[in-house]
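Note to self: user wants both folds in one dump. Writing first protein now.
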Amino acid sequence: MAFTAQALVGSSFVAAVALEDYPIAGGQAARYALAALVMLAIAGFRMPRLTRPDVLPLLGLTLTGLAVFNALMIVGVEVSDPASMGVVVGCVPVVLAILGPLQRGMRPRPVVVAAGVVVAAGAGMVQWTGAAPVLLGVVLALGALACEAAFTLLAVPLLPRLGPLGITQWATVMVVPMLGAWALLVEGPGAQRLPDTSELLALLWLTAGVTAVAFLCWYGAVQRIGPERAGLFSGVLPVSAAALGALTGSVALNPVRVLGAVLVAVGVTLGMVLGSRRRGPAPTLTA
């Protein structure tokens, strides 16, 4: 499930090519509005009822993981380059390998952290172009990294009650007014327009594959195997993007990218195999 989720998200970079001339914020708002309708239909046109403790984590993961993350990545790419942003954000497996257990009052498992480092290194090799990093771009990338981690970690306490479907439903609903306000402020009402055929197809794919299916798979994986091991599959995203880019002719494969993909596979495999072994009760942290 985690592999499927990240592979689908990786395909968004190919879809984004068709949306180069489409208003960014408006397109994101339309994407999530359509996704919210899809999720509502999947749930039989019912929304799970929220309790007071649910509201803040849901708002937090929606604001950080969807709205602010997109804004930081867009601005970061403008002041820096996609590769530099991707290399920093690609460290999310390490962050989740450390913070995931700590969130549950447990010690991080060294083998999973090490696997996360291998995955992050491989993901960086897949994306790195040799361009010199820009300080502001690095700062924005670190912010995007924090938002990406929050998107997963804030969902952990919600999963037992709301499940992957409920979280995805509420997240897609909540983010629409956030992105709508962003579109009006940044792009203005005159910037919005109906998409042409290729743009519409790209938006539909982002809605169905990259949002609805990917979110359900991702949160399902987090619920089943925990955020630290699910996070290892974040390295699949740049590999998927590079592979699809190579097929469409927008990305040139080279030995470094191939080696990076191999490292991602090795890191994920080691983390899943060795990280699943238990040597008795997991130690808990004490004050």
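First done. Writing the second protein, which came from a different request thread.
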Amino acid sequence: MRGRSEDGSPRIWSVWYDGPGAGAHNMATDHAMACGLGPDEGVLRFYTWDRPTVSLGRNEPARDAWDPGRLEAEGVGLVRRPTGGRSVLHHRELTYAVAVPASGPGSMRRLYRGVNQVLVRALRRLGVPAELAPRSGRSAPLTSGPCFDQPAEGEVVVGGRKLVGSAQVRVEGSLLQHGSILICDDQGLLPILQGLMPAPPGDPPTTCIADWTSDPPSIERLIEEVRGAFVCDLAGRWPSGERRPHVPVDLERRLEAHYRSPEWTWRR
């Protein structure tokens, strides 16, 4: 494909840390940067959240599962992602987003495995014995609980417990993948926020970086390691500092209104 490296990677990458943002802003920026992608461009974006926020998968039920009044009383935001999957609580974590041009059949699967292999490399450099989850022969339905309860094939796990939750979507001619890298584990709060009984005592289904290191990394250190792993593993020209891609401002504003709207958030 014209404008691509021999391994299919984009030739020119943009990388930037967007800082903490509201849920609608974070989803709109991811969506808009994928829409504005050139044929030879790739984007790696890092961001955090301005308050604890639950993100729902694109088709995940919300109306009978979440109480907006309870969430607001707890100071927790709610947003529906453009990507699939199940609910995640974004709090003490780093969110990454990768957008690349779609490159034919199988490109979503290749991106998913390639990005997760990069994340494994970065986590191992931090002393976390991460690996990719093996084939399980089953996929979890949208009603089976939060994202981190069950790892799927190819996800980043330690000792069989999920540490990174990721999801994908095809946006026009691009692929978008974003995910949550847990520094500390707050996912056990999800049932409590829904007014359900907390999980019984015992080993949680989720793990986090803090479980495997006595000195959890700062956001800046984690970004440095993940960025370094991307540069090592994926071909193309990488900027020495931050390089923001062109994100259509009008489109980003329209998308932010869309992701803020109750019609989208509570559509199911």
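Dump finished. Worth passing along: Helices lie at 23-35, 68-73, 107-125, 190-193, 219-233, 249-260, 262-265.
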